[in-house]
Amino acid sequence: MKKLIILFYFLASAFFFAQKDFVNSITQKQQFINLAGKPLTDKFTNIKSVKVVYDYSDKKIYFFNSIKYKYHHDFCEEVLGFSKDLGSFNDASYNATNDRAFLLGNLNYIEKSDDWVLELAASDQMNAKLIEFFFSQVKKNVFFGSKVKFYLSTPRLIALNQKQPLKIPIVYSDFIFQNLTEQSVEKGSAIGILKKYDLKSNPKFYPKENEIIIINSTPEIIPNVKAIIVTEFQTPLSHLVLLAKNRNIPLYVDTEVFGKTKINNLIDKKVELIVTDDNYKIALTSKPIKLTKAKPRITLVKNLEVKDLIDLNKTLPANPQNIIGSKATNLGLLKIVEKEVKAFKTPEFAYGIPFYYYDEHIKNNHFDKEISEVLALPKDSIRLIDEKLKAIRKTIKKSKVDPELIALITNTLSQQNQFKNFKFRSSTNAEDLAGFNGAGLYDSKSAILGDSVKTVEKAILDVWASFWNERAFHERDIFNIDHLSCAMGILVHRSFPDELANGVLITKNIYRKEYQGITVNVQKGEESVVKPEIGVTCDEFYVHNFNFLDNKLSVDYRSTSSLNDKKPILKTSEIETLFKISPKIEGKMYTLWKKYKIANKPMPLDIEFKIVGENRTLYIKQARAYMD
């Protein structure tokens, strides 16, 4: 009888809570769960969120069904009777004064760590006193009041708290980030044999094409597999992410997957993996493993007639990508855009070394025989192929560059006396192609004019040798690109030993796709953004113009730099500049791509930038298509 009473009470409670579109207080966890939906932004995985409204005129708080009412405005209009248009609602609810119709927020729950954080919209200009008041109203009306914290998710809130600390418990993005264990990266489904590889013990691994792999480190070489689960969080522009998107294979991060018994019991068995926006599922399956269809052969064009260095400050020749490669070509086009936009600089003294010299070097040193031997090997002889590739790179690095080319480059770069440090960057015709990103496949090297160690010759040889990197060779193979139709050019420009920050941005809002904007990853100094050291995080945020009538930008952080004491790396004015010029660069680059017959449809851009010197000058060093 007692059990029946308890069951009846539980069912009655669940029914009661399920019928509510809103409550004025949350007294049990089930209430929160029933009201919760996904956050409006996809910046975090596995977060439950309930929207909160404090009606300022009626002095009443509402926690409401966040699936039924996707936006605060929907609830305020339908339930609280707000009758004016959306623009008026925004003016009355997001301003910096005490004259507010409503106080709006999102109450987020991180189930793994049992943490609760109150977050404002990135566009909200709520002042410090109202923040403290709003927080107190939330705190006293939830059963977890002692645990709730306020999330400083924007540069404005961080600055506000630094000027005069808020009198409430506060957290930064890293608090949420460090308590997450999962990240959905590339959605999709796959069927394959589940395998687990401990790359920390043995970084060399050779999975088969029919495998879904679990790995505990981000590999330098991304194998040809059906899907990947990795234990390390990824940035949007990490090479693993870009290559997974390029191949259209599911990719998910689960930091605890190695220890999960249910998943370990499925190792060596045929499973189906399904990756969604906020979770993944693995289960045994009898479905067949789909055979990988052979891709059509891609034969690229390489122009070996041009011998002169291409000055990227001058008019480019026709079809430059077939002479100096995509990277050098895109910088030449950026220099045209720079003259029109006039809000950024590009690297000075930039030149393209044509394919001619790479091709001559291979032929004159008879490396073509070793290359032919590699190409003749069966595609599944991966260990042997990798050994041969390593030998080719070693041989190229030990060879001697034509003295005439060294003299040509040295004399050209020495015609100025501003810079002695130069960057030699890979620039092939086998990257930045439609359907083939090629991110991170090749190497770049530095040289110092007149230096006996970091010589021009060594930089050239290292870049040329990187054409035969294992990761580059196998990626070209996966896409059935004819290796012999490819060639390595080199982009040369002055380097940046005094960079204050380096970053990458995408000219689209990847976390709130309904808003146009940009997504930015930026780090202090020259620490890598796309491949940081373990434990190092960067500033990652998206920007959009939410209140388009007043042109104020919404800047919403996903993570903050672990190297900058929680202070934003970029100034507000610098973020505004990036936001303003990004669509202009995107549009003008597309126009130039059409002119030079490089692309036939508009695409978002992947832009690399730097903040340099005492004056914090904005440099853009690369812009290429972002293919997602």
End-to-end separation in angstroms reads: 59 Å
Q: Helix amount, in percent? A: 25-40%
Ranges with pLDDT <50 over ≥5 residues?
1-19
Number of helices: 17
- Count all strands and give the number: 25
SS class: alpha+beta
Determine the strand fraction and express it as a percent band: 15-25%
Characterization of the model:
- The protein is of the alpha+beta class.
- About 30% of the residues lie in helices and about 25% in strands.
- It contains 17 helices and 25 strands.
- It has a 7-stranded mixed sheet, sandwiched between helices. Strands 8-12-11-10-9-13-14 form a 7-stranded mixed sheet, with helices on one face. Strands 23-22-21-20-24-25 form a 6-stranded antiparallel sheet.
- Strand 5, helix 5 (about 130-140) and strand 6 form a beta-alpha-beta unit.
- Helix 10 (about 325-340) packs across helix 17, helix 12 runs antiparallel to helix 13 (about 380-400) and helix 13 packs antiparallel against helix 15.
- The longest helix has 24 residues, at about 570-595.
- The chain starts with a helix and ends with a strand.
- Residues about 1-20 have low confidence and may be disordered.
Quick recap:
By secondary structure, the chain is of the alpha+beta class.
Features of the shown structure:
628 residues; 30% helix; alpha+beta; globular; 25 strands; seven-stranded mixed sheet
Layout: helices, strands, pairs:
Layout: H1 2-19, E1 22-23, H2 29-35, E2 48-55, E3 60-64, H3 72-78, H4 86-93, E4 102-110, E5 115-119, H5 128-140, E6 149-151, H6 155-163, E7 170-171, H7 173-179, E8 182-186, E9 188-197, E10 211-215, E11 227-230, H8 239-247, E12 251-254, H9 261-264, E13 270-275, E14 280-284, E15 310-311, H10 326-341, E16 351-353, H11 355-364, H12 367-375, H13 382-398, H14 403-413, E17 421-428, E18 444-448, H15 456-465, H16 470-478, E19 488-494, E20 499-506, E21 517-524, E22 539-547, E23 552-559, H17 572-595, E24 605-612, E25 617-625
Parallel strand pairs: 5-6, 6-7, 9-10, 10-11, 11-12
Antiparallel strand pairs: 1-3, 2-3, 2-4, 4-5, 8-12, 9-13, 13-14, 15-16, 16-19, 17-18, 17-19, 20-21, 20-24, 21-22, 22-23, 24-25
